[in-house]
Amino acid sequence: MKLGFIGFGGPAVHIAMMEEEVVRKRQWLSRDHFLDLIGATNLIPGPNSTELALHCGHERAGWRGLLVAGACFILPAVIITGLLAWAYKQYGTLPQVAPFIYGIKPAIIGIVVSLMILLGKKALKSIELGVIGVACVVFSLLGINEIFILFGAGFLGILIQLARQKSSAINSIVPLSLMFVTEVRLNPSGWRIFWIFLKVGSILYGSGYVLFAFLNTELVKTGMLSHQVLIDAIAAGQFTPGPVFSSATFIGWQMGGPNGALAATAGIFLPSFLFVGFLNPLVSRLRRSKVMSAFLDTVNVASIALILGVCVDMGRSSIVDWKTALIGVIGFAVSFGFKTLNTAFVVVGGSMLGYLLWLI
Description:
With 360 residues, the protein is an all-alpha fold. The protein contains 14 helices and no strands.
C-alpha cells in the first residue's frame, strides 16, 4: 500500500521501488528471481507493475499474498483517481499540478536509470545477451511492438542455447490463450462497462499510451465517451501514484457514476490476478529447464532494454531545460549513491525542487 501511495511515474518507477523494498531492504526475493518475474510480467497482457506486485505477493504468501498485494497496490490509485473523477464530473476540469509534476518526472528518470544499472549487471550474463539487449533498445526506439521484441528475443535465446547443446530437441511452449469478450450493443450500464474493460485488460500489452489507443477505439469511436474526457482520464492516471490503468476508474465514473467506476476498475484489473495466479508457479519450473532458462535470460535482458527505451521517451518530454536536467542528474546520483535511501524521498525531493525552480 505504501508503494501504491508513493509510486509516481509509471511502471518503470514502480519496478525500481519494488526492487528496493522486496529485494534490497526485505530480501524476500533474490535479484535473479526478481528479474525472472519482471520478464514473466512482460509476457502476459495487463499492467506490468501491478502484475509484478501480484507476483511478489504470491512469492511471499501464496494466493492470499497475491490478493492482498494486488488490492493494496491498486487501492490508493483507485481512491485518488475516484476523487478526481468526482471533482471532474462536478466542475468539468482537473486541478493544475504542472509545477509539481515538472520536478517529479526527471527525478524518477534518475531512479529508473539507477535501477537499470543494478539489474543490468545481473541480467547480462554473456556477450550474446549484451548484443541482444542493445538490439532490443534500438528496436524499441524504432517503435517495434514490444511483444515482437520480447518473444523474438526469447526464441533467439532458445536457438543460441540449442546451438550450444548441438541438440535438435526443443521443449514445447504452450502460448497463453487470450480471452476476447464479445461486445453487446446496449446502452452504457455497469455490466457493459465491466465487459468492455475486462476485454481491454485481457488483451492489452504496453503502456498507458497503448491503453489510450484501445480506449479510443472502444469508447470514443463508438460515441460512448468524448475524446477530451479520454485525454483527461489518461492525464489523471499519469499524475496520480500507482498503476496508470487507474484511468479506468476515472472513465467509469464519467460513464456511470460510482457503480461505473467500480465496474471499470474490476474489469481492467481482474485478468491480471488470473494470469499471474496461473503463471507464477511456472516461473521456477521454467528456470530448471536449460532451454527455457535461456528463454527467460533473454526475455529479462529484453525487458530491461524496453524499460530503457521508455526512459528515453520519458526524457524527451520531461527533460526540456537545464532545470529538469539538473533534477534528473541529482535524482540519479542520490539513487545510485545512497542505495538504502527510500526512493520516496527522491520523488518528493524532485517534486519540491521542481516547484522551486518553476518559480524562477
